[in-house]
Design a protein that fits this description.
Layout: H1 3-9, E1 11-17, H2 24-34, H3 59-64, E2 71-77, E3 80-86, H4 94-102, E4 106-112, H5 119-131, E5 135-140, H6 149-160, E6 163-166, E7 168-171, E8 179-182, E9 188-192, E10 202-205, H7 213-228, H8 234-238, E11 242-247, H9 256-266, E12 288-296, E13 305-313, E14 316-317, E15 321-324, E16 329-332, E17 336-340, E18 343-346, E19 349-350, E20 355-359, E21 369-371, E22 388-394, H10 400-413, E23 417-421, E24 425-433, H11 437-450, E25 454-458, E26 463-467, H12 469-475, E27 481-485, E28 491-495, H13 498-507
Parallel strand pairs: 1-3, 1-4, 4-5, 5-11, 6-11
Antiparallel strand pairs: 2-3, 7-8, 8-9, 9-10, 12-13, 12-21, 13-20, 14-19, 15-16, 15-21, 17-18, 17-20, 22-24, 22-25, 23-24, 26-28, 27-28
Helix pairs in contact: 10-11
The structure holds guanosine-5'-triphosphate and magnesium ion.
Magnesium ion binds next to helix 2.
Length: 519
């Protein structure tokens, strides 16, 4: 086996997804603890003086206790190199989550044991299914009262159409969590708490009979699971038909190690990626990668822009010159870093599955492919159809320069889409987003990262369609329609009401009014 194949084989690149608040960031932090990447686990809502969770590094995330942007964390675990992607659960930030899923080879779907399947769980599940991303399931918050896990298994099967195959099974009801039985070998591990869950939970292999009635109940359930044959099956897991299920509590660390081990044992290593044309590029072909995320100002002392790149083939060596697919121009990779939340370190070599950061690569956009040798293009990463529109103006006209530069950067990140009127330029652009919370993030970051306080005012637009130059001329003469341009040249027509749009489309079929679809 070549070096590249061996290196790829020990990589696991996976995302954590769920409805808001199910515990993704907490679980991420505990993976880092068990991977030895942090000495003490931080908390999502850290009290003064305590560590906050590594993946919620943004000031606004820490203030609110929610994830706003996805985070990449690389850490070694035993013989493996992990690339972990923590995603925000809130629907308003789902565009970021969807993009990150393009870079993952597998995902851990987290469910809150008290809540079961929630609306965002279903949506994200569908994205994974459509993209063929295999899923592990983690029933979280078992330290708190919740629902019967057998009932949740039925719910997953009925609502998502995927068969959960429990690997671990709890002893004790939710809220009285003693430990788990590993169905593969029948061994019972009893857990003990550590202070605030900051250190690993104690694990003891003991005779489960000591758990009395809880053990009897668990035994009955285990018998049932055996009877229905819900056993882990790698082939159907990789095909997205079954999902190995684990039970635990990210807060107290119960069951976290078993899950992390399963990511190594069960989740697939990188495999050849499908390209837009031709055969998938083999892992040991020359270097290729695509950009899936842009983030500016992660480090307040540097104030730079990082393009996150997922490597698909070949060995990356820092300093190598690659071709930038979209422009055909050579691109030097002198400033390449590994990423760990907000922290980064110079990276010298990297392999398929790895996510690296390219610093101040101003030409790179989300979805761009980079390669060496034989050209390749990986699938475009679609942008969402915006549903909310506001007008942005600088509060302080003396800070127009900062306002402009913030607009451009946050547009590239995809925090919002910036739509401009040809006549007005940057003075009063319309911001378009999937959800209103994106505007709050935009305003907060523009003020705090770029020093340009912004005033946002509502508009009456509610729906956008993509159009072309010929139709744009017609549309701009029509009442109730506004024609604006994105930085990439795309022309959008904004309508106040979907009924008006439908009527216009019906009456004037010659107009180009394409739906902006997110797949
Ligand atoms: N009791 C209990 N609470 C938990 C557990 N895991 C997470 N929490 C709490 O649930 C809340 C949300 O946790 P997060 O880790 O931020 O959830 P998230 O899924 O990352 O949320 P978003 O990123 O905002 O979508 C926090 O207050 C956590 O402390 C758990 O196992 N048990
Ligand atoms: Mg989070």
């Amino acid at each position: 086996m070549s070096d590249v194949l061996a290196e790829a084989a020990r990589r696991r690149t996976f995302a954590i997804i769920s409805h808001p608040d199910a515990g993704k960031t907490t679980l991420t932090e505990k993976f880092l603890l068990y991977g030895g990447a942090v000495q003490q686990a931080g908390a999502v809502k850290a009290r003064a003086g305590r560590r906050s969770a590594t993946s919620d590094w943004m000031a606004m995330e820490q203030q609110r206790g929610i994830s706003i942007t996805s985070t990449v964390l690389q850490f070694p675990y035993h013989e493996h190199a992990m690339n972990l992607l923590d995603t925000p659960g809130h629907r308003d930030f789902s565009e970021d989550t969807y993009r990150v899923l393009a870079a993952a080879d597998a995902a851990v779907m987290v469910l809150d044991v008290a809540k079961g399947i929630e609306p965002q769980t279903r949506k994200l599940f569908e994205v994974c299914r459509d993209r063929g991303v295999p899923l592990l399931t983690f029933l979280n918050k078992y330290d708190r009262p919740g629902r019967d896990p057998l009932e949740l298994i039925d719910e997953i099967q009925e609502q998502l159409g995927i068969q959960p195959t429990p690997v671990t099974w709890p002893v004790g009801i939710p809220g009285d969590f003693r430990g788990v039985v590993d169905r593969r070998d029948g061994v019972f591990t009893k857990f003990g708490r550590s202070a605030r869950g900051a250190a690993e939970a104690t694990e003891e292999i003991v005779d489960p009979a000591g758990e009395g009635a809880s053990w009897e109940a668990a035994q009955e359930e285990l018998g049932l699971l055996d009877a229905i044959g819900a056993d882990v099956d790698v082939k159907s897991f990789l095909a997205g038909e079954t999902s190995p299920l684990f039970v635990g509590s990210a807060l107290t660390n119960f069951g976290v190690r078993k899950l992390l081990d399963a990511v190594v044992d069960l989740a697939p290593a990188p495999s050849p990626r499908s390209a837009v044309e031709g055969e998938p590029r083999s892992l040991d072909a020359p270097f290729s990668a695509f950009v899936f995320k842009i983030q500016a100002n992660m480090d307040p002392s540097h104030r730079d822009r990082l393009a996150y790149v997922r490597i698909c083939s070949g060995e990356f060596e820092r300093g190598m010159t690659v071709t930038h697919g979209r422009t055909g121009r050579p691109f030097a990779t002198k400033y390449a870093t590994s990423v760990f939340g907000q922290d980064r370190e110079t990276v010298d070599v990297a392999f398929p599955g790895d996510v690296i950061g390219l610093v101040n690569a101003t030409d790179l956009n989300i979805g761009d492919t980079l390669y060496v040798g034989e050209p390749v293009a990986y699938p475009r990463i679609p942008s969402f159809a915006p549903e909310e529109f506001v007008v942005a103006r600088p509060k302080d006209t003396g800070r127009f320069k900062q306002f402009r530069s913030g607009l451009a950067q946050l547009d590239e990140e995809g925090v919002v889409q910036v739509l401009r009127d040809d006549d007005l330029g940057d003075t009063a652009p319309v911001l378009a987003a999937v959800g209103r919370m994106q505007f709050e993030v935009f305003a907060h970051r523009l003020e705090h990262e770029f020093g340009a306080p912004v005033e946002l005012s509502p508009t009456s637009y509610s729906v956008a369609r993509r159009t072309d130059a010929a139709s744009a001329a017609e549309l701009s003469r029509t009442t109730g329609v506004r024609v604006l341009k994105r930085a990439d040249g795309t022309i959008l027509a904004l309508f106040e009401s979907p009924y008006w749009l439908d009527r216009l489309a019906g009456e004037r079929p010659e107009l180009t009014l394409e739906r902006i679809v997110a797949d």
